[in-house]
Amino acid sequence: MTAETTVTTTAAPEAAGRLLDVRNLHVTYASGAAAVRGVDLAVDAGQKLGVAGESGCGKSTLALALLRLLPAGTKVTGEILLDGEDVLAMKWGRVRAVRWAGASIVFQGAMHSLNAVHRIGDQIAEPILLHKKATPAGAKKKARELLEHVGLPGARADAYPHELSGGQRQRVMIAMALACDPRLIIADEPTTALDVMIQAQILRLIEQLVAEQDLGLIMISHDLAVLSDTCDRLAVMYAGRVVEEGPAEDVYERAQHPYGKALSAAFPRIGDPSSRFAPRGLPGDPPDPSALPSGCTFHPRCPVALDVCATEDQSLRAAGAEHSAACVHVGAPVPEPSAPAVEGAP
Ligand SMILES: Nc1ncnc2c1ncn2[C@@H]1O[C@H](COP(=O)(O)OP(=O)(O)OP(=O)(O)O)[C@@H](O)[C@H]1O
Q: Taking every annotated instance into account, which residue ranges of this chain make up the domain ABC transporter (predicted)?
């Protein structure tokens, strides 16, 4: 995001020890696409939050908004309290200081994020030097240590990105994200381009680093199964809103929102061979964020929509212990199936 981006914020109250507290975040692109619409999220140190949803539901927009990386002309409102300080209210100098050192992002597709003509050690050292965290010799040494920390030999610092495998490059991206000792890591589809074995290794590495360093983690993926395996909590997004949120296992195994249920049914259950070969898809596509349907934005695809869903949207409401979902059916008594009409009955 550049200085031309419109950012509106209200004064930040004390955020009682929360690492990240996102309140009522809205993001509208210059095109009019309302990509994020009133998102609330919280992450504590040591906590792993998974953000799930189909392509186009606003996950990456949310990630980019957290560090003000959205393009010029994008309108952003709400609050993003990082260690109690509102990122949306920061001057640009402070935003630059917070990137890498307060929070950093691991993007998908490391080959595109790394610079092909620079040695990876120099690329890891770059943010360390930018943030004046070490001398050039110290940054070089730290780059090698970071490589070793993510399971690569320090000598690989002299390699160019094309000399590494996809999994090794993603390890480099993780090393780079850790370079300035951030407290929060945002991982946007960090394993999407990798094969299943390497994917599992990278996920375990991220888990290990988060636990070791008591970091907060936001992991973004379309894959609810991967998220439920890695994260403590899950937030399910649809058309720019969080429609379901709660403990990871609960949301994956006992989704309450019809969209959460459909997303969960689309992925095989770990340890349940009967579900392995029968993932179910959801018919239709997510709506265009420039022309959203009225009422609940999911109602045109919802198998249990009522008439009211076409006109009234629902807020998140309790769907279990620390579990909430934004659906008219949540908390409502299950309707009795109607008796078949009997001809001639009074
Ligand atoms: N720079 C942009 N200008 C206008 N609209 C955009 C821009 N970037 C994204 N969008 C739109 O915003 C919506 C949300 O996109 P976003 O990339 O955040 O979704 P996503 O859930 O991360 O999808 P994916 O999983 O495919 O990355 C989409 O409709 C997308 O077309």
A: 20-264
Domain that holds residue 270: 6-102+180-287+295-325
Q: 223-236: per-residue pLDDT in tens?
A: 898 999 999 999 99
34 C-alpha to ligand 1 centroid (Å): 10
Question: CB-side exposure of 44: number of CA atoms within 13 Å?
Answer: 4
Radius of gyration, alpha carbons of the chain: 22
- Global pTM exceeds 0.90: no
Mean pLDDT of 3-21: 59
| Residue 71 beta carbon below 6 angstroms from any ligand 1 atom | yes
56 close to 240: Cβ distance less than 8 angstroms: no
DSSP 335: P
Structure tokens at 170: 């993603």
For atom 12 of ligand 1, the residue with the nearest CA is: 35
Tell me how far apart the alpha carbons of residues 214 and 15 are, in angstroms, rounded to a whole number: 18
Helical (H) or strand (E) element with 207? helix 196-213
Residue 208: CB within 6 Å of ligand 1? no
Out of 4, 59, 238, 243, mutate this one to test ligand 1's pocket (max ligand atoms within 8 Å of CB): namely: 59
Tokens at residue 161, please? Answer: 């990105």
Ligand 1 center to 62 CA (angstroms): 10
Q: Is position 340 within any domain?
A: no
CATH number of the domain that 82 lies in?
A: 3.40.50.300
Q: How far is the CA of 173 from the centre of ligand 1 (A)?
A: 22
Q: How many domains does the chain have?
A: 1
Is residue 130 in some structural domain? no
**β-strands 216-221, 48-52 pairing:** parallel
> What residues have CB less than 8 Å from 13, skipping those under 6 apart?
none
In 3D, which of 114, 108, 110 has the Cα closest to residue 126?
114
Q: Has the ipTM of the complex gone over 0.90?
A: yes
pLDDT at 108 exceeding the cut of 50: yes
